[in-house]
Structures are given as structure tokens and as C-alpha cells.
Amino acid sequence: MGLIVQKYGGTSVRDAERVMNVANRIVEAYDAGNNVVVAVSAQGDTTDNLIEKAMEINSNASKREMDVLLSTGEQISISLLAMAIEKIGRPVISLTGWQAGFKTDAAYSNARIDRIDTERLQNEIDKRRIVIVAGFQGINKYGDITTLGRGGSDTSAVALAAALNADICEIYTDVDGVYTADPRIVKNAKKLDDISYDEMLELASLGANVLHNRSVEMAKKYHVKLAVKSSLNKVEGTLVKEVNKVEKMLVRGVTRDNDVARISLCGVEDTPGKAFTVFSLISKENIGVDLILQSIGNNGKKDISFTVKESDLDRVIEILEENKEIINAQEIKFAKDVSKVSIVGAGMVNNAGVATKMFEALYNAHININMIATSEIKISVLVPRKDAERAVVAIHDKFMLA
Predict the structure, then answer these.
(1) Would you tell me how many other CB atoms lie within 10 Å of the CB of residue 150?
(2) Residue 191 DSSP class
(3) Contacts of 390 (CB under 8 A, 6+ apart)
(4) How, if at all, do strands 194-196 and 35-40 pair?
């Protein structure tokens, strides 16, 4: 008898028909002799609808009260799913995040899991009950409900698998695995049978919306075997695991991220510590900076360009304007009409010429590169947003990923 943790996203449980479909999938695993623990997201657009309701009342509601509101979405899902399993005739219980023992820090709306007290979970498993857990939520040291931020249900599922030492964590979505590119953009994109934690982490961080990067990070840390599968069919998915192939595939995937904005500080003094001054001001606000480009000094001046999430752009510009006397830039420019296109592959580290091949693909497609960043297993470029989809297709074809 094994222990399986499953996670179902909002689209998988968006209506009564799909809830019953998921219930049957869970019961199938249970009837095969496994213990089953399930993390569930809010149905369909429930979270967005709840946010809209909050905005109607108070557009500046506290994060604490927003967490109390948004956590109800998952509570609806777990109760309905438990009812569906009851109807089929199997023993089941639904638990909110706090009932399941999720203890988090106090960062409302983007909390981190500190630990899971598994006593209640284990008691229910020992009774051979199917346990349905509300994803995306927990409780902090003050006894307040917290939510885990975007992709929180993925993280909840992996945390459950780690805490319970599960045999596998199955993430069910509306796609049937991890592809070499977004199949909606690249028609001949290929589904991968397996992928390493590091490659998946990069893909997740660079715009692939299959798994959230925090969940992959946790899976790698605690050696949780992950499988990405479709809730709508029985096709074999993609396994996320440690690298075990001697010859790694050169490039595993191409991604595009449109949530990007470029900021340029023009004519900054070419003195030591200037970059530290700029980026420390931004990091104090807990805002991440991605691609960074600094020009060679000329006449005592230099330019510093970097990217942030487009959703953070207004706040970063505000910070820079508030501190313009310290930064002392001649001009602050920004652009929203850009996208980040990246390639990822563990095999890149030992192969020269990968960047050249990528740049050649973009040159042949007449696409201009604004910025470049590299690591051992990824290369990212900033391109005009209007060219981003063409860039993904051109690069995918160049590396013959299909």
C-alpha cells in the first residue's frame, strides 16, 4: 500500500461535472489500495470573483482580511469534492489548511509554510479515509488564516507529500504534462517524459505556467517525486525528478514571459557602489530584479538597465523618483512593450555555441535583442513584445525540439 498526494487546480473542479470526474479519479487510486491525500484549489474563477467583491467594498482592504475572504474559495471546493466522494460511497473527510496542520509565517497574502503538524492527517489516513485538504492556505502564530500567494496549492501539495513521506505527488491540471514550449504558441511542441528539478525550476520561473516555482523548489529540497498529469484524460504525464541521464538533452524547453518591464537609468555617475545603492532601494520593498545590463563608463557616466515584473513597475518608478537625488541619473526611462524569451536545458553547460544558435534564430526571424542574461542551464533575452511569440517558434524550430 502506497501513499499518493494529488493536487487538482481550479479548472479541474470548476463545475459539478468536473468535481465528479475528479472524485472518480481519486476513488480509482484509493480502490487500487493506496492511501490518498488531495490538495484542491478554488473552483474556476472563484478567487477572482472574491477579489472583485472585496474591491466593491474596500479597494484598500488589509491583507489579513483579504486572506480571510480568499481562503473560503478552497473551503467550497474541498466540501463539494468530499460530498462527491461520499456519493460514490468511500470514506472521506475535508480539512481546511489550519485543520490539516499548516503552520505559516505571518506574511499575509504571500505566506511561507514553516511546518505541517501531521497528527490529524495521520489519524485520518490510519482510519483509511481519503483526506481532502484546502490548498493555498494555513494559519500563523497569531491564529490568523494566511494564504500562500500565486501557485499556493501546488506548494501545499508538495509540502503534504514531503511531510507525509508520500511515494509520489501528482499535480493534475488542464494540460497533460510539461511541453518543450507552450502548445498554444508552438503547434508542434513535444511533451517531455521527464525533466530535472533544476530544469523545471527554471522553466517555472521563466513563464511556464504548469508548476509554480516555489513548489518545485520544495520538491527538490525534500526529494519529492513529482508528476504533472491531466485531470481530463489518462495520458501519461511528465515526471519531475533528479537527473539520471548521462547524455542530457541540450535544450529542454522555450518559454515566454510577458509580465516584464524594462527600466533604464541613463547618465548615472560611474562610481563604486552606485549599483548597490539602486538595487538596495528596490530590494527593501521586496521587489525582485531580473535581467541587469550596465554599460561601460564614458565621461564619468554610465547607464544601468534592468527588468522587473510589469506589475511592480509603477512602484519601482516611484522609488527611483523618491530617491532621484541619491541616484542622480540624468534620465529615467521605462518600457512595458517587452517580453522575456528563454531557453532551458541542463545539457547547455557542456556545449559551446548554444547562445550563438539562439541568436542566429532570432536574427533569421529579424527580431532585435534588447538584453541578455545567462546561467549554466538557461539563456534569457528581452525582445519586443510584438515579436515574442515569433521568437519562441523560431528558437523552438532552430533547436528541433519537436
Answers:
(1) 14
(2) B
(3) 365, 367
(4) unpaired
**137 φ/ψ angles, rounded to the nearest 5 degrees:** -145, 160
Percent of the chain that is helix, strand, coil (3-state, to 5): 40, 25, 35
Q: What is the pLDDT of residue 248?
A: 54
Strand partners, 133: 39, 95
**What grid cell was written down for 268?**
548615472
* Cβ count near 237 (within 10 Å): 24
Q: What is the pLDDT, as a whole number, of residue 246?
A: 41
What is the per-residue DSSP string for 60-71?
T--HHHHHHHHH
List residues bridging with 84 in a β-sheet.
none
How many CB atoms lie under 10 A from the CB of residue 295?
14
Eight-class DSSP state of 243? -
Amino acid symbol at 340 = K
Residue with the three cell numbers 472524485: 23
Nearest alpha carbon to residue 226 among 234, 218, 181:
218
Residue 244 has what pLDDT?
A: 56
Q: State the DSSP string of 32-44.
A: TT-EEEEEEPPPT
Regions of the chain where pLDDT drops below 70: 207-208, 243-249, 297, 349-350, 401-402
Return the pLDDT at 377.
Answer: 86
